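Handout, page 2. Input:
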Amino acid sequence: MKRIIYLLFAVLCTSYASAQITKDDVSKYINEQNAPIQKAREAKDYKKLEGICNGMIKTFESYPQNIKEEADSYIGELYYNLACCQSCQKKKKLAVASFVKATEHQWVSYAHAVRDHDLDNIRKEKQFISTMYKIRGEGDYSYILKQGGGYVVKADSSLPQFTYLAPNDSNLVRIRQHFNLDSVAGSGNEISKIKNLLHWAHNVVRHDGASPSPESKNAIDLVNICKKENRGINCRMMAMMLNECYLAMGFKSRYVVCLPKKYINDCHVINAVYSNTLNKWIWIDPTFEAYVTDNKGTMLGIAEVRERLLSGAPLHLNDDANWNNKQKETQAEYLDFYMTKNLYRLECAVRNEYNTETKVNGKPLPAYISLDPSTTPESKSEKRIVTNNDKYFWQCPEE
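Output:
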């Protein structure tokens, strides 16, 4: 069974003055269900849970069409939990029907369904098997990653050069001094400094995926607004903040948008930092204070992690990886599921600089390079170039 998350969707953050029901009505209704659902879950009272899920589905189905459409994936999650309740009670036909309904309402978490023991009683049912096969192409992220086309390895001078702002830039010097980054990085070796900056970024602000991006997106302003408003920032802002700090300390660094083949509910943004010691890009994730190594403890890059997920070669997530110092990240959830989903396509800004995505008069926003294994020829527009040339995408900064 999947725990229902009682957060309001974007739809509930919008006023529906012209509808019969308001966002406050929906919020109140959801909050009213928290206690009885939690109580039934703890008691494993599946009959009670079934009744609550059915009731919530009927209520959502009675809402205006605009609310139902925006909350479709939430309704799908309700149907999924309903299927689990019914499966646990051995109501096989009802459970299969509810599971099918869940997939019809955008619920496609194939990997979760595979390992959810609440569904064990219906796994041999023909319609369940056929439905699982149907959603595999959207929800089996390891399968999707392996089905992606191969990369092209060739030189291509027509593609733009990635650039990295020099650490003596006045804005980067200000960041270095403002945060006392020399002290943060420490006096150890290169890898030690990279890790210390990661730990600092993870702790200086908290992650909040629902937090809107501020207008000013440089490192100093991002940290200041978090302190002033007692708020967090999303993963993109965290990676951009850390990116400027790495650049300020003389590291070549990018923030990398990691995307699924089909955008369903989210993506993730991390950093790639070039290590001169290892002569390669390495994986750095400030949201989860995470990096990845091989079985000898050598840090790996995004391309290496992706390849090892495809081949089954050993991967190790650092033991202290966590979310907001509250929840430990496991390799199964972070690498085998979450990042397997989000490593199909990768995207970076061509220019890696100060205030990369802040709208400033006279300063054009950067173009982006997307690495997509399903793309054969390069496609180019003013703001986005799509390529399947991984040699170009992961080129050494000095090339």
